[in-house]
Write a structure and sequence with these properties.
Number of strands: 38
Shape: globular
Helix content: under 10%
CATH class of the largest domain: Mainly Beta
Structural class: mainly beta
Radius of gyration: 26 Å
Number of helices: 5
Distance between the termini: 42 Å
Largest sheet: 22 strands, antiparallel, barrel
Strand content: over 45%
CATH superfamily of the largest domain: TonB-dependent receptor, beta-barrel domain
């Protein structure tokens, strides 16, 4: 009730602050010419404008106070500063410096909303539109273009992120500003969210428990939703994609409109794929999948108040491939398959005081997971024609809350304090029970500060978390599948310290130390039976402890107008790392695997180089190399560690507004994945392979509407290969072969 009273109070006084505005002119620093279509944006306020033909802009209905201002335009260096908004009209004139370096964006996943070059912590950011130009079929496939990020895949439709060798519950996914909960403990459980309506993705590579609590021990994948339209504007678009390998079709349609205070958007999409073909020309039976996705949102903004509500419904049917059998182009999954329904509802409200602000984020997620399996007759052992009910049927309900208060800013110091929490319930309705009916409750308190000097920055923080898990008894004692009742509490203190310094002109150094933790999940604590998705008899340990880690991250970044280079190394020490290993016994036809704990360590890093030589500013040469090793204290290798990867890309870009083709690009890329012979006890060596990818596209006018055409070919030489992180590797089933994709986006 207090929360809603505060909202009503804020709305009542926001009108008195609605007359504050910022107006001015943006010009070219070299010739003083006005620049049109330049973005002027206050990221914290989510309010902005674009310049007209005379370079003039105006942003109105702004609250009093100091806020980050970002001015960006293709072909120019991004300008950012802290701008003081005073009563009435505020004037601003900016001269942008020409540059072929890509525009910088504000990092949202870290608390102080700074550009990457200003951040103490190195965060990778990629626009979904750019990932689509590379021919990515799914969101999980697209993020593998980010150095240090891979995916554990089950065919094409199921993939989950791996950050520097850690995955599943060790990598936290955020969407719409809330943590995404969808039974992510399983290797065969994908993201459960479509890329339509997602603007960009940010990746924190390393422990982020200080910011996000448990399960962020390995890193965070932060999905930024599509922005609302600028004030007093409307827009719509349709996007269509075709994929030759799977004869896949994907379409999404969106519309958004904003007035001076109210705003609204909606986007719906549908994707369908047949079985994919490997490099051997054979289709992997039942790798087909289809997805429906709806995202909508509405918001209100005036003066000191900004609030928005978003809703995402995602429904998908995912075939679970097991063999190369019948060669068909059917689109409906056969047994076994998953049927998933995700409902994600969130609200985010910010109240801006003169020198401080409060942000309240609430979220509710309902995940309905059904898995249908093969049912065989006892005598003939033939698959039944008639489909039975779901073997596995789990409902997961999660309520999230996050309150962050930005204390009044000092001249050099910014501080955020907050409280975060979650209450989650799991219910079973199927004949099989992997994890029991259970309730999980989280609460965490945190404080994080950023201290700014002329040529350096320090960021530090502390956090305390408490998690309580209670689970109900299931089954009959001393029999297969029996799960005892559970009542466990986990607590953890965590800290982070980071230092950023301008070593010299254009050269930035970063050193970060951060601890993290992860409470064991229900599968690790309570498993006692066959897990059909992994073909193992798994036995959990109800006495498992928290995983705790300390990571050291060192980075050097050099960037001038024509050269970009960064070197990022890490060492991650994990205490009481939870893993699963066989004990040599067999139940039925399934080997018995036990959950164990042992100290572990991971180390490695990424090197990225980007050259765009003068005067050939249209030419880009890009290279990246990533490596990670993971070992237990006893010397054994950790499972699911990505192989070393080298990627070289030659890219050309042209921009000519005087012609019908406004912007065009083309690229050729060679991805070399090295032999992975550092494998765990129940893995095998994975051979090296090379993938050649090409693509081109451009922006043009179609019936006086802006349009974009994309064409790409991945695995152009139809290489027959198996990735080390493919869950189909043990069955000798290859990854996807040559795939040609065509995409068309048209503004409506």
């Amino acid at each position: 009730m207090k929360y809603f009273c505060s909202l009503l109070f804020a709305i009542s006084i926001s009108v008195t602050h609605a007359q504050n505005s910022v107006s001015g002119k943006i010009t070219d620093a070299e010739n003083n010419a006005p620049l049109e279509q330049v973005s002027v944006y206050f990221p914290q306020l989510e309010r902005g404008a674009v310049t007209n033909s005379e370079g003039v802009f105006q942003v109105s209905s702004l609250p009093l106070g100091s806020y980050k201002l970002v001015v960006s335009y293709i072909g120019y260096q991004t300008f950012s500063k802290t701008f003081e908004i005073t009563t009435g009209v505020n004037n601003l004139e900016v001269q942008l410096i020409p540059s072929v370096i890509e525009m910088e964006e504000v990092i949202v996943s870290t608390p102080f909303h700074k550009l990457q070059r200003e951040n103490v912590m190195k965060v990778e950011q990629a626009k979904i539109a750019d990932l689509k130009t590379r021919g990515a079929i799914t969101l999980a496939d697209g993020i593998t273009n980010i150095a240090g990020v891979e995916t554990v895949s089950t065919g094409v439709g199921i993939g989950k992120p791996v950050i520097r060798g850690l995955s599943a519950n060790r990598v936290l996914v955020y969407t719409q500003g809330i943590r995404l909960e969808n039974q992510q403990f399983g290797d065969e459980h994908g993201l459960g969210i479509g890329e339509a309506g997602i603007e960009s993705v940010e990746v924190i590579k390393g422990p982020a428990s200080l910011l996000y609590g448990s399960d962020a021990l390995g890193g965070v994948l932060y999905l930024n939703p599509e922005r609302f339209a600028l004030a007093n504007t409307s827009s719509g678009d349709i996007n269509m994609n075709y994929y030759s390998n799977t004869t896949g079709l994907g379409t999404n349609l969106g519309f958004k409109s904003s007035g001076e205070r109210f705003k609204f958007l909606v986007r719906g999409g549908h994707t369908t794929h047949t079985d994919y073909k490997g490099g051997d020309g054979l289709r992997v039976t039942n790798s087909r999948f289809r997805e429906y996705d709806l995202k909508t949102g509405m918001g209100y903004q005036a003066g000191i108040l900004k609030t928005e509500f978003r809703y995402n419904y995602n429904a998908s049917e995912l075939g679970i491939p097991e063999e190369i059998g019948a060669q068909t182009r059917d689109r409906t999954p056969t047994l076994p398959y998953q049927e998933l329904h995700n409902h994600i509802l969130s609200s985010a409200t910010s109240i801006f005081f003169n020198k401080s602000s409060l942000k309240i984020t609430l979220g509710y997620i309902f995940n309905d997971r059904k898995e249908f399996e093969d049912h065989e007759e006892e005598e003939g052992m033939e698959e039944e024609e008639e489909e039975e009910g779901a073997a596995l049927d789990m409902h997961l309900s999660t309520f999230n809350y996050n309150l962050l208060y930005n204390l009044p800013k000092g001249k050099r110091l910014e501080t955020i304090v907050g409280i975060q929490g979650m209450r989650q319930t799991n219910k079973n309705f199927g004949e099989e029970i992997l994890i029991p009916d259970a309730t999980t409750s989280d609460i965490g308190v945190l404080a994080n500060s950023h201290l700014h000097f002329d040529k350096s920055d320090i960021q530090f923080g502390l956090r305390f978390d408490h998690r309580a898990i209670t689970g109900e008894e299931s089954g009959i004692a001393a029999t297969e599948g029996y799960i005892a009742s559970l009542d466990r509490d986990f607590t953890s203190f965590n800290a982070a310290l980071g230092y950023r310094v301008d070593v010299m002109d254009k050269l930035i150094g970063r050193v970060n130390f951060a601890s993290g933790f992860r409470a064991p999940n229900l599968a690790e604590l309570t498993s006692n039976g066959v897990h059909e998705g992994t073909n193992r008899f798994e036995i959990g340990d109800p006495d498992l402890k928290n995983e705790k880690n300390l990571q050291t991250d060192v980075a050097l970044e050099y960037k001038n107008e024509h050269v970009e280079f960064y070197l990022n190394g890490f060492y991650n020490s994990i205490k009481d790392y939870i893993f699963i290993e066989p004990n040599g016994e067999v139940v039925g036809e399934d080997a018995v695997f036990l959950y164990r704990q042992q100290n572990a360590r991971l180390y490695g890093g990424e090197i990225v180089f980007h050259l765009h030589p003068h005067p050939l500013d249209w030419l880009h040469l890009e290279s990246s190399f990533e490596t990670v090793r993971g070992k237990l204290d006893n010397g054994d290798n950790l499972p699911l560690i990505p192989a070393n990867k080298l990627k070289n890309t030659l890219r050309i870009e042209f921009e000519d507004k005087s012609r019908w083709l406004k912007r065009s690009y083309a690229f050729v890329s060679l991805q070399s994945v090295f032999t992975q012979d550092n494998f765990s006890e129940f893995e095998t060596t994975t051979d090296s392979y090379n993938l050649l990818n090409i693509g081109c596209g451009g922006n043009f006018s179609l019936f006086n509407k802006d349009a974009e055409l994309r064409l790409s070919a991945n695995n152009l030489l139809d290489q027959n290969y198996i990735a080390h992180l493919s869950r189909l590797k043990s069955d000798g089933i290859p990854n996807i072969g040559r795939n040609i994709s065509v995409g068309l986006s048209v503004a409506l």
